[in-house]
Design goal:
InterPro entries: Lipocalin-like. The chain is of the alpha+beta class and 171 residues long. It has a single domain, classed as Lipocalin (Beta Barrel), CATH 2.40.128. The protein has an 8-stranded antiparallel beta barrel with strand order 1-2-3-4-5-6-7-8. The N and C termini lie far apart (67 Å). 12% of the residues are buried.
Length: 171
Amino acid sequence: MYSVNKLFVVLGFLVLLSGCQGSPAPTPAAGPLEGVWQVIARTGADTDTGSTEASIQPGLYIFGKRHYSMMYVPGGDPRALFGGTLNEVTDSEKVQAYDTFIANSGTYEISESSITTRPAMAKNPNFMTGSHSSVHSYRIEADSLWLTIESISIYSELPGPKTTTKLVRVE
């Protein structure tokens, strides 16, 4: 009888404990970069003057907790439209279109002064080998973000002038 009572006490205690749950782990706060950012200005893109581009072309940067995606038109001129339908696009038009935008996605690491991106997918297949990265210095004020390209590991020198891109948070 003693062991039956002991068994009921142990079972009752286990049932009681099974109903107790700790509070769920807190959701980590969003990092300062998380969100969608739209390009609104770029400086240093003109090698002769180093001035801000008068006509900014479309660009979006998206940052999650660990991953990023960016696509933008680096020049001041709009991309040329294809002459015919998609079935009529020439190889020459495809090459010209390829040269008019930057696109890559992957993971990023952030420190107090820099963002290092490591592309898993990129328009340039040589940039997505797993061994390349780019480093930007950055500054955030309210809903504005400034990114200055410091290095791109696929190049021994930056391909053109050092540029700073200003973005605003849109989401």
